Amino acid sequence: MTTIKASCPSCGEVELTSDDIRLRVCSHGQLSYYTFTCPSCVENIRKPADDHIVSLLMSGGVEAEVWDVPAEALEPKAGAELTYDDLLDFLLQLSRDDLLASRASAPAHR
Length: 110
Ligand SMILES: [Zn+2]
Hints:
The protein is an alpha+beta fold.
């Protein structure tokens, strides 16, 4: 079986076999990645896999699993990014029972 060298952020270079690596090739190429469990520190490592890495891993016997990114994940997002303050404001609004109750009991608009 082919030995594949990969690097762990903590341990440095480690040796793996094709069975140790899970290659996930995405229909949206930039989101392809591979994962493995480091044999030294037992950390789960995930790294991006560009076309070159996909080719190298497949030539080493790693089977590619194809996945599709959900369309909504690629939709253009308008407006400013949400911040933690926005999320906290939203939570505070939800926790106002009277406001929530009045909205829930209001007749539906037709
Ligand atoms: Zn490690």
